[in-house]
Write a structure and sequence with these properties.
124 residues; mainly alpha
Length: 124
């Protein structure tokens, strides 16, 4: 087998890990995991715990100016890193905004759905 293809195959395996939203932990990969999976150089060098990432996610979420941007932000997070998405918005049982997040998310999804219906009815 050509060495060129071997290098490309190895790179694609690493990229698949980072692009699989169920397996990707983002900056929460430990140094041991980064070494084992060959992720050094493919992630930012700083390692952040899931708790630190959750704080950053919540800060970004609440800084969005409107519901549509908040929804888009949540969907992007879910597409990139489902572990962090669920840890932040589903498993969070305590805290000032914990109960509101789940309800907020459901209401927001319903709102987006209704807006799509309105647009479809308008077009037809």
């Amino acid at each position: 087998m050509n060495k060129k293809y071997t290098v490309l195959d190895e790179l694609s395996k690493k990229q698949l890990l980072l692009h699989d939203s169920l397996l990707n932990k983002g900056t929460a990969f430990s140094q041991k995991e980064r070494d084992a999976f060959g992720l050094n150089g493919l992630l930012p060098p700083r390692i952040l715990s899931i708790e630190d990432q959750k704080k950053r996610i919540l800060m970004n979420f609440y800084s969005k100016p409107n519901d549509i941007e908040k929804y888009t932000y949540l969907m992007g997070l879910q597409d990139r890193n489902e572990t962090l998405f669920y840890r932040t918005f589903i498993h969070q049982q305590s805290g000032k905004h914990a109960r509101n997040l789940g309800i907020y998310f459901v209401v927001l999804v319903g709102y987006i759905f209704l807006m799509k219906i309105v647009v479809i009815l308008y077009l037809f």
